[in-house]
Design a protein that fits this description.
Blueprint: E1 3-9, H1 15-29, E2 33-37, E3 51-52, H2 59-66, H3 70-83, H4 85-92, E4 99-103, H5 108-112, H6 115-124, E5 128-134, H7 136-139, H8 142-158, E6 163-167, H9 175-186, H10 188-198, H11 203-216, H12 233-245
Parallel strand pairs: 1-4, 1-5, 2-3, 2-4, 5-6
Bound molecules: guanosine-5'-triphosphate and magnesium ion.
């Protein structure tokens, strides 16, 4: 049974590029991966999807047919995608592969916060893992990091599947930035101190939120990866293998 590996993150965080590069990485290791595009609004993609949601639901067609603007149409599309879940699953079952790499819509709330998406993830397979991409530019300030951490936490809360955060596009960050973000992810005292040092008017709210993060036990190591260099992609593979196969490698 294949693994369904979803890439989610805020707009422009690098989901599509990572989907493409992770597929190339898997090809190089001799593992079989199939790309599924779940973004009905994608205009051009840097990869050729093996399964493409636009064959069932297209944003531009929904806008035209129902006279909706782009946001209203995205919401309609999210529900239509879920209604087509069994059909999509049937097509996925025709492929023999180790992983399905699933690229998700730019506006992540359409995927993450729609009830239909939870059903979709369930229908598409029993072995699912979500990789949450932390945008590097937002993450490098304590304030932005707390906001993204909470977004990651609330996404995790929406799906009952293993969840694996990564700092994406880490080639855009200095070693010091990466070190800071990783410290904040693992140690709430470090984050607390960084927020106080940043000293914005929202510091008090941030400190309360950090307490929440601590109480929920959300702290964890956040590996730094880059799709363009590329580096760190094997960390995602290792997380998947640890979650589902006790850390054993796939048979190439
Ligand atoms: N430096 C750098 N740039 C990257 C990397 N990955 C993606 N990008 C760039 O970031 C921009 C957004 O990348 P996408 O892969 O389209 O991001 P996305 O999350 O799929 O975007 P939406 O679907 O529109 O939300 C593009 O200009 C990419 O070339 C990376 O690892 N490093
Ligand atoms: Mg994209």
């Amino acid at each position: 049974m294949a693994v369904n590996l979803y890439f989610i993150g805020t707009a422009g965080s690098g989901k599509t590029t990572l989907t493409k590069e992770f597929k190339l990485w898997m090809d190089r290791q001799g593992y079989q991966a199939v790309i599924v595009n779940l973004d009905p609004g994608a205009e051009s993609l840097p990869y050729e999807p093996d399964i493409d949601i636009r064959d069932w639901v297209s944003l531009s067609a929904v806008m035209e047919e129902y006279g909706l603007g782009p946001n209203g149409a995205q919401i309609a599309c999210a529900d239509m995608i879920a209604m087509n879940a069994l059909e999509i699953k049937k097509v996925m079952d025709e492929f023999e592969c180790h992983y399905f790499l699933i690229d998700t819509p730019g506006q992540m709330e359409l995927f993450t916060f729609r009830r239909a998406s939870r059903e979709l993830v369930r229908t598409l397979g029993d072995r699912s893992l979500i990789t949450f991409l932390f945008d590097p530019i937002i993450s490098k300030h304590p304030n932005g990091f707390v906001s993204l951490f909470l977004l990651a936490g609330s996404s995790q809360f929406r799906f009952d599947v293993p969840f694996f955060p990564v700092i994406s596009k880490a080639d855009m960050l200095s070693d010091k930035d990466i070190e800071n973000i990783q410290k904040w992810g693992e140690d709430h005292w470090e984050l607390d101190t960084a927020l106080r040092d940043e000293g914005t008017t929202e510091t008090q709210i941030g400190l309360e939120l950090v307490k929440g993060i601590q109480n929920l036990g959300l702290q964890q190591k956040i590996p730094a990866i880059s799709a363009s260099e590329p580096f760190g992609l094997e960390e995602i593979y290792t997380a998947v293998q640890d979650s589902f196969f006790g850390g054993d490698d796939l048979e190439a």
